[in-house]
Every structure is written in structure tokens, then in C-alpha cells.
Amino acid sequence: MSVFRIVAATMLVIVAGCGSGLQPVRGTVTLQDGKPAAGSQVVFEGGPVGKSVTARGDVMSDGGYELGTYKPGDGIPPGMYKVQVNPPPMVNAEAAYVSPFNAKFSSFQTSGLEFEVKSGQKNEYAIKVTK
Q: What is the per-residue pLDDT across 29-61, written as a single tens digit (0 to 9) for each?
């Protein structure tokens, strides 16, 4: 067998064994009154043991989000994650900014939000943020 064939066969095995392993994660973010937290951003941090991963998803007008690790909506590796929700960006620099929800949700340490992403399962996480 030629060296080229050995290298090609080895590369094929490596590529075939390196699936992305990313799992889709979707959900909704709603405010205390049940309205969507549109314009916010959901951030997951944590992941597989020994590896730190961060994924994000923008909250759409209907309150829905979809996580992406490398590109929007591509998913996240299985594992345990802490979750934070960042409020919508300030749109008027001259007006006082009032977040639509409590600032505690904007920190992994204080949000109290956690989610385990599981392989091969429907990963949906509905989040309700309060004042």
C-alpha cells in the first residue's frame, strides 16, 4: 500500500471520528408579565468536564433563542452549564437605562440558572426573568 493511501485512510478515519458533537439548544426567555424578553441575549458557560465552552443566542421578538458555539444556531457540546441573560442594549445614550429585569440574571454567579445539555435529546430551556 502506498504512503498516500495510508495517509488518506488515516485522515478519513480521523475526520469520520470527529463529528461536531454539538447539540441544538432552544428555548424562550420571558419577562415576569409573560411578555418576550426580545433583544436580550442568553449565554451558557461550562460544558464537558475539563473543557470550558461559551455559547450565545439572541432572543428574538417572539422570545425564542437558539444557541451557537462557533456560529449562530450550531449548538453546544453536552455538559452542565451556568446561564445568564444579558438585557437588551441601550438604544438612547441620553436617557436613563432601565433593564426590563433584575441585574442578577446578567451574571453566572447570581442568576441561579443552570441547564444540562444532553446528547441525542431535545434540549429546550425556558427561562423566566423577574424584576
A: 999 999 999 999 999 999 887 889 999 999 999
Q: Distance (Å, rounded) from C-alpha 131 to C-alpha 104? A: 9
Supply φ then ψ for residue 12, to 5 degrees.
-65, -40
In sequence order, what DSSP letters do the residues of 65-115 get, joined into one string? EE-BSSSTT-BB-SEEEEEEEEPPPPS-TTSPP--SS-GGGG-TTTS-EEE
- At residue 49, the 3 state secondary structure works out as coil
The answer to whether 88 touches 100, Cβ cutoff 8 Å, is yes
- All three cell numbers of 55, joined, read 455559547
Amino acid at residue number 15 = V
Rounded Cα distance between 73 and 60, Å, is: 13
3-class secondary-structure state, position 35: coil
Q: What integer pLDDT is reported at residue 106 of this predicted model?
A: 97
pTM over 0.70: yes
Overall average pLDDT of the 88-94 stretch: 81
